[in-house]
Structure formats: structure tokens, C-alpha cells
Amino acid sequence: MKVKLKDLKPNPNNPRFIRDEKFERLKKSIQDFPEMLKLRPIVVDDDMVVLGGNMRLKALTDLGIEEVEIIKAKNLTEDKKKQFVIKDNVGFGEWDWDALANEWDSELLGEWGMDVWQLDANSDLDMVNSGTEDDEWVGMPEFEEKEDTLKIIIHFENEYDREHYAKEKDMEFITKQSGAWITHYPFEGRNDMSSLEYE
Fold first, then answer.
1. What is the pLDDT of residues 28-45, one digit of tens each?
2. What phi, psi does 51 have (nearest 5°)?
3. Residue 48 carries which DSSP code?
4. Among 23, 72, 28, 19, residue whose Cα is nearest residue 47
5. Which residue has the higher pLDDT, 113 or 1?
6. Which parts of 88-171 fold into alpha helices (H)?
7. For residues 14 and 89, is the Cβ–Cβ distance under 8 A?
8. Which of 27, 61, 87 is the last residue of a domain?
9. 112: domain range?
């Protein structure tokens, strides 16, 4: 069903928000792929209050679009409405970062609204995916393991957790081996270095 945007009411209790660059990316996404609005309509309750799609409604209003496809979720209790608002925005799955890195264009993913890695145009990082994983670090002694340093191996479930941990601990992760990011952190005055390796 298509309705006038002016007939829809933003949800005053919506816990999600979007701002600045991400909001501009959402608007561009709508302009580039307007068919998506029909494939994923805005969800409203009996009173035309938006349950799912508040940020899209905001973007459509900003773009000056006057009509949008909706689905009306009828006869929901207040508890069910609250559940819908939260569950509609919860991501239960996880991204396969290796698949994204190898099979998708990171620039396009960014344009589509995903927070992804971006390579600096001036970066001297060698992106040639040839040879073995260890071959990437040949000739780079600063990345070689030192016997006089503590080695901590930490496995993260996703890239966000890794970045958050690094920021909280003020640690620089300098290499990735078999899915684990590794950092070398000076630790003087300990004789039992072998007991301080964690996985």
C-alpha cells in the first residue's frame, strides 16, 4: 500500500538515530535504488506511527519524496510494538569479514551504508594476494616475533570487537595470522615468558 509521507507519524520512542555522513549515505542509497523502498516497506501501526523505517522516513522527507510503500501491522499490543521496534533493528547474524574482503567491493559496501575498512590512497600496503600468509611479512623485521617480548594472541568474533578492544587498551595490533590479530608488547622483568602466551 502506498501512502502520503505527511500521513505517517515518526515514532517518538524510536531508540535508533542516524546523523551526518551515514544519513547522507542513506539518502544516496534511496536515490540510487528506489525499488528497495517497495521491497522493504515502512512498517506502521494502526495509528500510522512508524515501527520500522524511522530513518528511511526521515531521509525521504529530506529528499522531498511525497509517497512511500507501507505495511500496516494491525492489532499489536503496546508490548509487541516495542518488541518490533527493537527486534527490527537487532542484527542476529555476523558478517563473514573474509568473504566481504575478498568477494565484495569495499567502496560499494561503504556507499550502501556498511561500516567497512577503507584503504588510504597513499598507503604503501601491498595488496597482492599471492603466496602464503607468512609471505606477506617477509622483509619486514618490525613485524617479526621477538624472543624478548611478550606475545599475546587474542581471537575476536568480529572486526568491531577488535577495534573496540584496541582503542580501550591503547594497543596497536600489527599482524594477522590465521584469523588472529597479534601484538608485541614489551614486558620486562619476567623470566617465565612462556607462561604468558594466551589464546
1. 999 999 999 999 999 999
2. -100, -35
3. -
4. 72
5. 1
6. 97-103, 106-111, 159-169
7. no
8. 87
9. 95-121
Tell whether 21 and 73 lie within a shared domain. yes
- 0.90 surpassed by pTM: no
Residues 36 and 83 in one domain: yes
Residue 25 sits in the same domain as residue 72: yes
Nearest to 73 by CA among 62, 63, 83, 65: 83
If asked whether residues 48 and 109 sit together in one domain, one would say: no
Question: Do 24 and 55 touch, CB atoms closer than 8 A?
Answer: no
| Chain centre distance of CA 155 | 18
Q: How far apart are CA 112 and CA 120, in angstroms?
A: 19
**Which one of 96-110, 116-130, 163-177 scores highest in mean pLDDT?**
96-110
pLDDT at 171: 65
Q: Is 95 exposed, middle or buried (0-12, 13-18, 19+ CB in 10 A)?
A: middle
Structural domains in the chain (count) = 3
Which ranges of the chain does DSSP label H, i.e. alpha helix?
20-32, 35-39, 54-63, 78-87, 97-103, 106-111, 159-169
Number of residues assigned to the chain:
199
135 and 99, same domain (yes or no)? no
Confidence category of residue 5, pLDDT binned at 50, 70, 90: very high
Q: What phi, psi does 149 have (nearest 5°)?
A: -125, 155
SS3 assignment, position 176: strand
Element at 71 (helix H, strand E): strand 67-72
What's the pLDDT at 30? 94
